[in-house]
Amino acid sequence: MRTCGPFVLLWAAGTRAPAPPGGVIQDPGRPKESLLLSPKEAPPPRPRFVPKNDRALKASIFTWFDLLDRLVEHHSTTNPTTGNPDQPFRYGYIREGMQLDTYIAAAQEPHVQRYCEVGVNGGHGTVAMLLANPRMTVVSFDLGEWPYSRHVYDLISIAFPNQVRFMVGDSKQTLPAFASRVRNGSEPTCDLVLVDGEHTEQGVLRDVRNLRSMIAPGAKGGAVKVLIDDVNFARPRAGLQKVVEQGLIVVDQDRIFHGAGPNNPCMRVAGKRECYGAEPNSTIAKQTHLPAWGLSEGCLVCEPRWGFATGHFVPVTRAGGGNGGGGNGLFSKWK
Fold first, then answer.
1. Distance between alpha carbon 77 and the CA centroid of its chain, in Å?
2. pTM for the whole thing?
3. Which CATH topology does 54-264+303-313 take?
4. Which residues is 274 bridged to in the sheet?
5. What DSSP designation does 85 have?
6. Which of 113, 144, 171, 292 has the most crowded Cβ, counting Cβ within 10 A?
C-alpha cells in the first residue's frame, strides 16, 4: 500500500462493482436474502486480536458497544405521529461500571463453560460475556420483537462462530422446551445465567425456575451464579423477592444506585438526530434527571434509581425438583 498526499492506492486482485448506498455489495450469484456465508463455505478464521489484559478487554467491549449502537440505530424506527422512538430502550444495556465488572468476573470463573441468558436487546451484554471468556458458549433466549433484533443476531453469530445460539420466541415456550433437552442429556447444563427478560414478578419467577432446571443436578450452590438486571423496578424486584422466599436462589449482592454516577451512567436519548454529534458536556447534551425512565429534553436520560443483583442457585435434586425453604438475610426489599 502506498499513500500519495490525501489519497491511498490499494493493490487489488480484481475489480468489483461500486457499493450501493448501503455499503454492501450483493453477490449476483447469491440469493438476496442470504448475504451470510455458511460455516461450510467459510471456515471461521482465528481472531486477529485477542485481549490480553483487562484494559484491552474493556477497549474491545466498548468498541463493540459503539458498533452495536450504530447497528441498532440504523434498523430502528420512529413513530411518525409522535416523533418518539418505537424502541425507547434500545440503549438500555449493561452499565460500564460495577455491573460490567461483576459480569466479567462471573464469566471468567474457571468452571464456566456455558452461559445461558434471557434477554438480548441490542446484544451488548452478550458480546461483553463472549469477549470476557472466549472458551465459553452462549445460549440466548430473546423475544426478537425489535426491527434490529435479527441484525444483531447475525452480526454476533458472524463474529463469534459456533459460540452462540439464539433461541427466538417467548421464553414461556422456548425455555421449558430447551430445559427438557438439558434434562434428557441432549444439551449441556448452564454454568452461569442471566435473567433480563419479562420485567414482571411472574416473568422473573418463571425464568428463574426454568433456568434452575438447566443446571447440573447436585451442583454446589456457589457453582452456578444468577445475574438479575433492573431490580430497581417494582415488578422485577417483587419477582426477586419471590424466588428468594421460595428458596430457589440465595442473593449475594443486591446493588441499588441512587442518582447518576459511574455505576449508573446516563444514557443517550433514542431517536433524536440532533443529539448524535453532541459532546457530553455541551448545552444540548445536558443531563436531565427524571422521576422515572423516559425521554428528556436534552440528549441524555438518567435513571434516578437503578440496580442489579447477583446470587447463586440452591442445589437442584432431580427427584424433588430442588431444595426449598426461606430466603436469606442478604436480601432486602429496598436499599
1. 20
2. 0.77
3. Rossmann fold (3.40.50)
4. none
5. B
6. 171
